[in-house]
Amino acid sequence: MVSSDHLNLVYDIKLSSVGPGHVTGSDVVHEPSNMDLAMKLHYLRGVYFFSSEAVQGLTVYRIKEPMFTWLNHYYWTCGRFRRSNSGRPLIKCNDCGVRIIEAKCDKTINEWLEMKDSSLTKLLVSNHIVGPELPFSPLVFLQVTSFQVWRMSLGLSWAHVLGDAFSASDFINMWGQAMANQLPQHPVDLPKSSCFHVGETREPAPTCH
């Protein structure tokens, strides 16, 4: 738990959302696997620190701009949970977007790390959980915190139901490709059974025993 003395270390917090640049469609849904649903109460969270050489002159607008193209490849991460007629949770790919948090800190990254308090990490990455209002609850949070001397951290909160740690790593690495304007031409492949249009005839999802 973060000490009350440290709560003001990160301030000027602003919220916004960014979605895909292309409309996914009104009837596209992503069906998480049974293994994904078994991890629905778990989250993967991490913080990346960037030096002044990497981010000097980089504005929040410049960070957000390539996200529209990046999220075309990860459109299902911008959706919200719904339930099928059978009650099974589905992600409706409605392009509501990932949640962006902008924040500031008056310390340098070196000063931050010298405090040697692991609980402070919670100030650099969202601790939001999915729910209780599922239709309005983002599955991915990205927090951009600006430190002194042109340094920055990027905090990722990834609902495990979207995929494992490798999926989350691929997701954030592709953001780096987007920043360098080196995105692949085609979206990331999903299992054919996981994304479909409402009304399609589909085989039942396999069950775990």
UniProtKB/TrEMBL annotation:
Q: Which organism is it from?
A: Vitis vinifera
Under the heading InterPro entries, the entry gives:
CAT-like_dom_sf (IPR023213), Plant_Fungal_Acyltransferase (IPR050317)
Recorded family membership: Belongs to the plant acyltransferase family.
Q: What is this protein called?
A: Protein ECERIFERUM 26
